[in-house]
Specification:
- The structure is a homodimer of 337-residue chains.
- Chain A has helices at residues 4-11, 15-23, 30-43, 49-56, 74-90, 105-113, 130-137, 160-173, 186-190, 194-209, 222-236, 251-260, 277-281, 294-309; strands at 61-66, 94-99, 118-121, 141-144, 154-158, 178-182, 213-217, 242-245, 270-274, 288-290, 316-320, 324-325.
- With 337 residues, the first copy, chain A, is an alpha/beta fold.
- In chain A, the strands form two sheets. The first copy, chain A, has a six-stranded parallel β-sheet, with helices on both faces. In chain A, strands 7-6-8-9-10-12 form a six-stranded mixed β-sheet, sandwiched between helices.
- In chain A, helix 13 links the parallel strand 9 (270-274) and strand 10.
- In chain A, helix 1 (4-11) crosses helix 2.
- The mean pLDDT of chain A is 95.
- At the A-B interface, helix 4, strand 1, helix 5, strand 2 and helix 6 of A face helix 4, strand 1, helix 5, strand 2 and helix 6 of B.
- Strand 2 (94-99) of chain A pairs antiparallel with strand 2 (94-99) of chain B.
- The first copy, chain A, binds a DNA duplex (16 and 16 nucleotides) through helix 2 and helix 4.
- Chains A, B: Residues 3-32 form the HTH cro/C1-type domain.
- Chains A, B: GO terms for molecular function: DNA-binding transcription factor activity; transcription cis-regulatory region binding.
DNA sequence: TTGAAAGCGCTAACAT
DNA sequence: ATGTTAGCGCTTTCAA
């Protein structure tokens, strides 16, 4: 291991000078800076992370807690995680990956060990057990998702209520009168992950406002679940012509099922998906969708915790406005024959 | 922050004693141990990670380098990452997440900064740029995947050649004579990620040995790509009755396309998937498949790097034997009419 | 079975 | 603009 002291010797300066060249915390003459930088490069020096953390009381690490669950759409989580990691690097930070397996005590461990100087929590539940600890330790943190009481917390999420409203509006605008929301797996609702319920609330509200009759059904993963849910909806309300789907894994099954049942998209029924853009683009037909801005959510979360670590107050909600992109899967409601 | 010194004072012992109680590196009287442990619990003490890393020259962190690519099946990556994280915790280690965005230099940074005491690399290419650095730094490391020259490296992977052979054998056993391998996206082959080519090699070898005529086609993501690939195969070889599919995202599209083209599975054509079990189970019909043992790969990788960090020599390949599970998608070849 | 004390490599006052 | 130096909290000899 190359140490700072070795660099100092090699460059013919004092250790502190090397430190200051690296941190830029005081002005250095052009000449010394160059000599030091050359020595660093020549020796292949990298500061020892532990020593730095010990001396500076900052670890330059962000802890990211991801869920273990299997009922969430994994690619979105991954995209957020990657956005967090690449954004963190821009702030010279690394990301420590924690799973919820360890439970709420992970929050204590991280806060207590100086392993990370900020945390980002994903898949936040309405009454999340980690939140009291977060409040108590006062650690810099951002949540991706919305708990029941976000007071004093920093949260980032898509505005799912507006998303539900937007989708309902789009279908109403196209003249649909009977619509259905095909949602996430039942387990998601049962554990009160906020996003599913918020979408439903927004959807209901706007469907009512626009005089639509609507139905809501959770939907599990897999072909079985998807086609079952769909056929039960169609049995109950055969004249349903508009579907909002908030379940990425069910989408291909749903589409193939609609085709099989002789309903053409978008001539007979319209489909609005709530999903990442690439899923919408890779479906046939390409889906009208409200996109999940995974990258931006990750980026924002990092920016917020970095601002906190720099001493700023950031508490409050960052609700990203939904955008609906019209593609091939939605069209005017069929004339009543 | 609670420090070890505070714990020592609280328990009425010396700092070193507290340290030894924690590490278990020397025997402590029942009495002292209990007092110290109570103090630790009472004060909510957690060792400072940086200080510990500095003093012990071990960070208790494993670095995990994941790819940024979008052409891999994300859930498998995620499952491996999670298995690595939970297994690491069993060794009292945490996981640092790095993306390949930073490039090969990330290897240098990690090795040089003491940030991690071992690394696990995913999505290894045949001529991976990170490998020379790995050899050069001599860092404890495990690769998930197989490079062209694994000499001196520790690698974990599914035995994809055996997988290809196994799939070909299964179809041959069922009497199929014309078969096709629908593979990963072309980009995967182009960049010479080993697994796709190894599957193909095994498949070819055994198909030849069993006297099958075979075809191989890469297949992109999305409905468009999947149905295009399938119809081109059927155009070229209309009597193809056996398919091996190594492309999780294409599977639902392929199945719905087969149905649409009037081919029943498994009566008219058989499908063998190479995919995680849950994907096989959530398809309709449930798929005969060779499973991707994501969890085991992650677990093994951690065990191997931990053994290395403990000074053992582990270099060599760990190729997990494939298992084929017969489900509903494969059956006897139809009689030639 | 326990204590005392010397660092680990860095940062950040405090000097000049 | 640069150097000196006192820790940061822990591990681990060396001593008892």
């Amino acid at each position: 291991m190359v140490t700072l002291a070795q660099v100092a010797r090699h460059a013919g300066v004092s250790p502190s000078t090397v430190s200051y060249v690296i941190s830029g915390k005081r002005s250095i003459s052009q000449d010394t800076r160059l000599r030091v930088e050359r020595s660093i490069a020549e020796l292949g020096y990298h500061p020892h992370a532990g020593a730095r953390a010990l001396a500076s009381n900052r670890s330059n690490v962000i802890a990211l807690m991801i869920p273990l669950r299997t009922d969430m759409f994994v690619p979105v989580m991954m995209e957020i995680a990657i956005a967090i990691t690449t954004t963190a690097r821009r702030y010279a930070h690394d990301v420590l990956l924690l799973t919820s397996e360890e439970g709420p005590s992970a929050v204590k461990r991280i806060a207590g060990s100086g392993l990370a100087d900020a945390m980002i929590l994903m898949d936040v539940e309405l009454e999340d057990e980690r939140i009291p600890l977060l409040r108590q330790t006062g650690a810099a943190a951002a949540l991706i998702g919305l708990p029941a009481d976000p007071t004093g917390l920093t949260c980032v999420d898509l505005d799912f209520e507006a998303t539900g409203r937007l989708a309902a509006d789009h279908l109403a605008d196209l003249g649909h009168r009977e619509v259905a929301l095909i949602g996430a797996a039942e387990s998601v609702y049962r554990r009160h992950t906020g996003f599913a319920e918020r979408t439903l609330a927004g959807f209901r509200q706007q469907a009512s406002a626009r005089g639509l009759s609507y139905l809501h059904r959770p939907c599990g993963n897999g072909h079985e679940a998807a086609s079952g849910t769909l056929s039960r909806i169609l049995e109950e309300r055969p004249h349903t012509t508009g579907f909002v789907v908030q379940n990425e894994t069910a989408l291909p099954h749903l589409l193939s099922q609609l085709r099989q049942s002789g309903r053409a998209v978008p001539e007979d029924v319209s489909v609005v998906a709530i999903c990442p853009d690439d899923v919408a683009l890779h479906s046939a037909p390409q889906l009208t969708s409200v996109s999940i801005p995974a990258q931006e959510m990750g980026r924002r979360a990092v920016e917020l915790v970095m601002a906190q670590a720099a001493g700023q107050q950031t508490s409050g909600l960052t609700l990203l406005g939904p955008t609906l992109t019209v593609r091939e899967s939605s069209g005017p409601a069929p004339q009543i024959s």
